[in-house]
Every structure is written in structure tokens, then in C-alpha cells.
Amino acid sequence: MAIVVNREVAGDLNNPPEALLNYCIQQHLSNLGRLENLSDYYDGKQSILKRIKDNPSVPNNRVLINHAKYVVDMNVGFMVGNPIAYSAETNKNIKPILDVYDEIDIVSHDTELEKDLSTFGVGYELLYLNIKEDGTTQPTLKCIDPRGIFLVTDDTVDKNPLFAVHHQPVYDLNGSIAHYLVKYYNDNRVITYKTESQGWGSYSLIKALPHYFHGVPVIEYRNNEEKQGDFEQAISLIDAYNLLQSDRLNDKEAFVDAILFIRGFTLQDGDGERLAQEKMLQTTSFPNEVDASYLTKELNEDGVNLLRDAILDDIHKITYVPNMNDENFAGNVSGESMKYKLFGLLQLMSVKSRYMIKGLRQRMQLFENFLKIKDSSIDATGTKIKLKPNLPINTTDIISQIVQAYQAGVLPLKVLLSWLPDIDDVDEVLEQLKIEKEENIEFQQKAMGTQADDSHSDLDDEPEEDEEGEDDNSNIRKE
């Protein structure tokens, strides 16, 4: 979570005071419990697994249905299942940035980033310089767990970044914490400290290096305005569903292990084992008064199923993630009908994408700042960033609509091609179409020219004299 500090109080950002570092780390650690809980719920370490009953002899099943992981994985696939598309403005050059993105596998990075956003409500990425085998440097980036990093901004309306801190423990060979490393990032350098405790001790300087990004190389992404995870509002419903399913199994187990009530005679030694083995017990004492039955409670499965379905519907309603096992998601549903069934998820994506695009623009700006050292032509201002929802799409219908609209002259071809989900760069496709059309015209011209040569070649040649004519002429001349 971003921590707000007054710029004048912060002091010298190139040599931060220990009191400033301690204060900021303490503020970050105060929110650590919430982040740990969200991580545990995604990993399947939920409250139902900690359930303890007063009577240890009664059934205590702990059934876990991990809706938290389902919600996160669905959102990640829906948001970044299709690669994020970048389109430069006319006469603007962003190709060097996109080339670096391809080299560092930005698609996998975005997937990891969205997973942090969906789980914790906030995500952080760190930009740094990687030294390649040939000795050259390349800007790259990594996702950092929000439990170990934070961003500090000023207290103005714009919330300008001041610096970021990444703190992590260093373990010895016995698995104990030997000390902590604290890396401080401002807009021009990276300072590494060593400390014995988090948020309370003194700091020993290890090294200070420049980073050349001309800005704080840590970007904070927000999942929404409140910085909440996608399943955070539904944690109580997830607990209720797990509890209901666990008690349902407990009741079944108690029903199977019901107490046998026998009236009219007393079991002798060995009768219990014989009853369990032979499933039958005979007695001759008071045959008219003998009775045996199980002590059970009535199980109302219809009521339990009704309650389970109600809780399940509430989980999907609160998280906006639909139940894909629902009968409404049949295989024969059209793409347009599917959009209406996913309307809630599409609305959620529209909000999430706005906050994510804001961070993606900061990322491009930092990459531009570094790459401009070697290539001054790079300009990422005005770049269009588009997130495409990963939905089942009927491409045949889309192509038919494009052909009809193009023949009717309603929209330009560039706009129509952008309707296709698998096209990231429309200009590149138009250039390919232009080259292909020119090649086809050239091929047809060559083909027509060859055909013309074959059919009319005898017209351009001088006529051959007939042998008989030659003889006649020669005879005439002789005469």
C-alpha cells in the first residue's frame, strides 16, 4: 500500500534519515496481517481447516471448496488471457520498447501482475538493469510480493511518487533470520542497507548505485479504488459455504455411526462383536417386549441444498464471476448471448482495466526514459493500450460483419479490422494486405503477359515462305 508523507518532512531523498525508513516500514507492517490472510485464502489455508470442536468424539470434517482461487484465476484469465495490445500514435516510435517487451516475456509478467492485483488488491513491479552475456545492459522488470515492498508518495492531490522500499529477510544455514536487507529506490539511485530488525533498528550502508530510469523504478498498480482483492468482500460467504458442506458431511457420518438403542434384554459378553459381524442377534427373554432402533436425527436435504445454492449464488454475485457450471453456459450459446451472461464480469473488467492502464503508461514512460539514452526517436506519448477480454468468440460472424460493412462503405477498413480479436497491430495487417495485393497484381500481369506471348507470338514474326511457292517462283524466274 502506498504510504503518504509530506515532502518537506521526508528530508533529503538522496540520503534518507533512519527515522523516515523506520516510520514507513512500520506503516507497511501494520497492514501485513490482511495481506497474509488474503494469500492464505488463495492458497487454500482457510478458516474451516482450523475448526476445533469441544467434543473430540463427534465428526469434525473440514471440507474446503476454494472459491477464492476460482475467482482469482477466472479474473486473471479474463483480463490478460489475451496479450495487452499497444498502438502508437501516427509518426510516434515505440518499436524499441515493444522489442524489449518481447525479449523479457511481458505476457507472462502481466499474468503474474494481475494475479497479485486480484488477490491482494494491489501489485508492484520493479524495473532494474540486467547485464546480458555480451556485457550490454537491458531494462527488465519483476513482480514483487506486496508483503515485502511499498511505495511512498507526497501528500499532494497528484500523489507524486517520492521513493519505494523493498525489505526482505536474509536467512542463515540454520533457517534463522540473520539480518534484513533494505533497498531504497528514488528517482535517480538505488541504496542498499543492512539492518538487524524491521522498522526499529539502525541502518548500515552497503552500496549506492544510479539506475538511469529518471523516475522511481517501482510502479504500484491498483485493482480498484479501495485496493481490495476480487474475493475479499466474499470471504464470509466462502467460510459459510465451507462450513455448510463440512456439517453436511458430519451429519452423514453421524447418521451412519448412529447409536443402537436396544430395549427388553441385556447384551452379554461377546454379543456386541457378534452383532457387528453377523448383523443379527437372537434372544429368548421377553420376546414380546424386545425392541431395537437407531437414535438418529432427521436430515432435510432439500433445505440444505436450497441454502447451499443461495450461498453459492451470493458468492458469484458479490465477486461478479459467473458460475461456469451453470446450465446457462451451454455450448450452443452464441457469442453475443455469452456477453450478456458475462455482463457483470465485463463491468468489473472495465473498472480494473482503467487502473491497470494507468500503471502500464508509467511503465512505458520509464522504459522510454532509459532507451532514449541510445535512441532519441522513441516517443510513447499518446500510445493506445487495450485489454481484450478473453471470451469465446465466433470469428465467422465477425468476419461476415466486416465484409458487409466494408462493401457498404460504412466504416474504413482499419476500424473494421480492429474488430478481430487476434489482431494486435492493425497497421501491420494493412501493410501486409497491401503487399499481398501488389504481389497478386504483379503475378496476374506476368500470367497475362505470358499468355499473350504464347497466343500471338506468330503475328510478330515474319511469314515463312511456302516451299512449293519458292519452287514456283524460282521456276518463273528461270523461265
How widely separated are the two ends? 120 Å
Shape descriptor = flat
- The SSE string, one letter per element, is EHHHHEHHEEEEEEEEHEHEHHHEHHHH
Task: List how many beta strands DSSP finds.
Answer: 13
Radius of gyration, in Å, reads: 37 Å
Low-confidence segments, ≥5 residues, pLDDT <50? Answer: 467-479
Quickly give the structural class: alpha+beta
Strand content: 15-25%
Please give the order of strands in the largest beta sheet.
1-5-6-7-8-9
Mean pLDDT reading: 85
Largest sheet: 6 strands, mixed
Oligomer: single chain
Helix content class:
40-55%
Account of the 3D structure:
With 479 residues, the protein is α+β, with helices and mostly antiparallel strands. Among the domains are: 3-58 and 103-113 and 120-222, no CATH class; 259-295, no CATH class. The protein is built from 15 helices and 13 strands. The chain has helices spanning 7-10, 18-29, 32-43, 67-80, 95-103, 106-120, 235-256, 271-278, 301-319, 335-341, 343-371, 395-408, 413-417, 426-460, 467-478; strands at 3-4, 85-87, 122-131, 137-144, 149-153, 161-171, 177-185, 189-195, 204-210, 218-222, 259-263, 291-295, 384-386. It has a 6-stranded mixed beta sheet, with helices on one face. α4 (67-80) crosses α6 (106-120) and α7 runs antiparallel to α9. Mean pLDDT is 85; it is low at 467-479.
Secondary structure layout plus pairing:
Layout: E1 3-4, H1 7-10, H2 18-29, H3 32-43, H4 67-80, E2 85-87, H5 95-103, H6 106-120, E3 122-131, E4 137-144, E5 149-153, E6 161-171, E7 177-185, E8 189-195, E9 204-210, E10 218-222, H7 235-256, E11 259-263, H8 271-278, E12 291-295, H9 301-319, H10 335-341, H11 343-371, E13 384-386, H12 395-408, H13 413-417, H14 426-460, H15 467-478
Helix pairs in contact: 4-6, 7-9
